[in-house]
Specification:
The protein is an alpha/beta fold and about 140 residues long. It is built from 5 helices and 5 strands. It has a 5-stranded parallel sheet with strand order 2-1-3-4-5, with helices on both faces. The model has no long low-confidence stretch (mean pLDDT about 95). The structure holds 1,3,4-trihydroxy-5-OXO-cyclohexanecarboxylic acid (DQA). The site of 1,3,4-trihydroxy-5-OXO-cyclohexanecarboxylic acid (DQA) has 10 residues, from loops.
Length: about 140
């Protein structure tokens, strides 16, 4: 099974950025642990601060190249109709993920442009949100 994690803007700064909200671990070190927890899953990782690059990666992976996508679109979650359209266009199931509980934060973060085109949403469990999304994908993907 092949799963692609796509992280959006500012998530390259995990571990450094607002640690009270996002924690003090960088994503690369978390990813190592995640990969060792799921040796049977081939976990690809892509991060970009650019909306178009995220869309390009959704197109590239979303037609059979990967079995499932875990997407933390960062702030684009709340603004990007273009990312929502890309998710709607592809075949691969996409799980929307957030490290923080966006519903317990500022009102502008309560609205997601992408939830309605994602298979499900996981938010608020810190970096463990990614593992929970992989767990969900392993249940819904039947190879
Ligand atoms: C986030 C929540 C977003 O509101 C924010 O813009 C992010 C990270 C999260 O993982 O909690 O960049 O997606």
């Amino acid at each position: 099974m092949n799963i692609t994690i796509i992280n959006g803007p500012n998530l390259n700064l995990l571990g450094v950025r607002e640690p009270g909200i996002y924690g003090s671990e960088g994503f690369e070190s978390y990813l190592k642990r995640l990969r060792s927890q799921y040796p049977e899953v081939d976990i690809e990782y892509f991060q970009s601060n650019h909306e178009g690059e995220i869309i390009d990666r959704l197109h590239e992976t979303g037609f059979g190249k990967t079995d499932g996508i875990v997407l933390n679109a960062g702030a684009y979650t709340h603004t990007s109709l273009a990312i929502a359209d890309a998710i709607a266009a592809i075949n691969t199931p996409v799980i929307e993920v957030h490290i923080s509980n966006v519903h317990a934060r500022e009102e502008i973060r309560h609205r997601s442009m992408i939830s309605n085109v994602c298979r499900g949403v996981i938010a608020g469990f810190g970096l463990d949100s990614y593992r929970l999304a992989i767990e969900a994908l392993t249940q819904i993907i039947h190879l």
